[in-house]
Design goal:
single chain, 6-stranded mixed beta sheet, Chloramphenicol Acetyltransferase, 35% helix, alpha+beta
């Protein structure tokens, strides 16, 4: 018998909906984290499934799917999936011989471009064996609507050893009824009317922050071309302490050092392509999370376009970028997400969002930088010896960079459309040289 007790539910936020709109532009907005394991003591798929099945109980969103509400009942809502089966989400694969990192990255590229089933919770874990006799990997893929970068770290925290344990709380809860959704939607509309003056002010700030109407358009270059559905990955690493000290000496941060390295590496590749570009515009995420929200899933991040120089020696460039980012940080955190979300949803309604993202001149590339765990993690007792972040690209942004610190190392993953960036290996090598020139 169905209970009449009111059920708590959450809707997809405005930021979440932006990711869904982006998902309709030809590529799926899926991201990943790769945990490389020291498996001198083998880890089997049955044990992995058993562990993850238990650990996801502490993260309700990992057993929920996103469904559209009936007409007049508001936006999409997260509901418990009564058909949840861990076997649909945790699988295994063998690394092609002879193994190694490049073979693993090929598997990851395929995983992020294989669409997750929309009628299930939007995540998967693949145990990859055969990297080497003592190495395996967990490839954790989730749709961006599930979590932003910080939320992604929260996902990992729920899966590794030491994760919080939660008792079974009556899963699955019933789905909210139409009358409950309609009442909630009516209350939301009333709140929205009351907040209209505030939201208009935030929209005005977002327009100012975005640079619209100023001479701040991204320079025309081969970094911006319509992308396809294929992806290729490369990785660069640097000692975190050395890079931090180099950045601090120039009044900057790790993020500034990453931006400087990316700018220098892209200039090297563009010069080899016969293009002279002395400035690029980079999209940099800005979190609007409060400290108490750091362990929550969902999207609470905006993006600000930052114009950065590509010329000069690495240290002087780092100092210049540090000055630029200090000025940009005075912008309202995450307010640009309001403008981006409003624009994307409006364009989607008239069917021209794909046209827009394939031709935008706001940014040349995306660069994200997350502070990951300072201490080594483990999974089923196997040490996590490497943690590789993977973000996404869409529209006409042909290459992006995802940086993540973990246990004393900063790892930067280059994500590209291989048809538009055939010189990915050269770009990755230039990035390694730039990082080490600073650190």
């Amino acid at each position: 018998m169905t209970s009449d007790k009111p059920v708590r539910f959450e809707r997809a936020s405005g930021n979440d909906l932006v990711e869904l709109v982006c998902d309709t532009t030809g590529t799926s907005m899926q991201v990943a984290a790769v945990l490389v394991l020291d498996t001198r003591s083998p880890v089997g798929i049955a044990a992995v499934r058993e562990a993850i099945a238990e650990r996801v109980k502490a993260a309700p969103r990992l057993r929920q799917r996103l469904v559209d509400a009936p007409f007049g009942c508001g936006g999409p809502v997260w509901i418990d999936d009564p058909a949840f089966d861990i076997g649909d989400h945790v699988m295994s694969a063998t690394c092609p011989a002879p193994g190694g990192e490049q073979a693993l990255l090929g598997i990851v590229a395929e995983a992020i471009t294989t669409r997750l089933a929309r009628d299930r919770p939007l995540w998967s874990v693949t145990l990859v064996t055969g990297l080497s006799p003592a190495r395996s990997a967990l490839v954790v893929v989730f749709h961006h609507v599930l979590a932003d970068g910080i939320g992604g770290l929260a996902v990992l925290a729920h899966l590794v050893d030491g994760a919080p344990v939660a008792p079974d709380d009556g899963f699955p809860r019933r789905a909210p009824r139409c009358r409950e959704l309609a009442a909630d939607a009516a209350r939301a509309r009333a709140r929205a009317v009351g907040r209209l003056p505030i939201e208009l002010g935030r929209l005005k700030a977002a327009i100012a922050e975005s640079g619209i109407g100023r001479r701040a358009r991204a320079p025309h270059c081969s970094l911006n071309q319509p992308t396809g559905t294929k992806r290729a990955l490369a990785v660069a690493r640097v000692d975190l302490t050395a890079l931090h000290e180099a950045a601090r000496a120039q009044g900057g941060t790790i993020n500034d050092a990453v931006l400087s390295a990316v700018a220098g590496a892209l200039r090297t590749v563009l010069t080899a392509r016969g293009e002279d570009v002395d400035r690029l515009v980079v999209s940099v995420p800005v979190s609007s999370r409060r400290q108490a929200e750091m362990a929550e899933l969902g999207n609470r991040v905006g993006a600000i376009p930052v114009g950065i120089p590509t010329t000069g020696d690495p240290i002087r460039r780092l100092a210049a970028i540090a000055r630029i980012t200090r000025q940009r940080k005075t912008a309202a955190p995450g307010s640009s997400a309001i403008l981006i979300g409003w624009t994307f949803r409006a364009l989607a309604k008239i069917g021209v969002h794909r046209w827009f993202v394939d031709r935008q001149r706001l940014v040349n590339t995306f660069v994200s930088d997350l502070h990951g765990p300072d201490h080594a993690m483990s999974f089923l007792g196997a040490p996590v010896v490497d943690l590789i972040p993977v973000s996404g690209i869409s529209g006409n942004v042909t290459v992006a960079f995802a940086a993540l610190s973990y246990a004393g190392t900063l790892t930067v993953t280059v994500i590209a459309d291989p048809d538009r960036v055939p010189d990915l290996d050269d770009l990755a090598e230039a990035l390694r040289q730039e990082l080490h020139a600073q650190g």
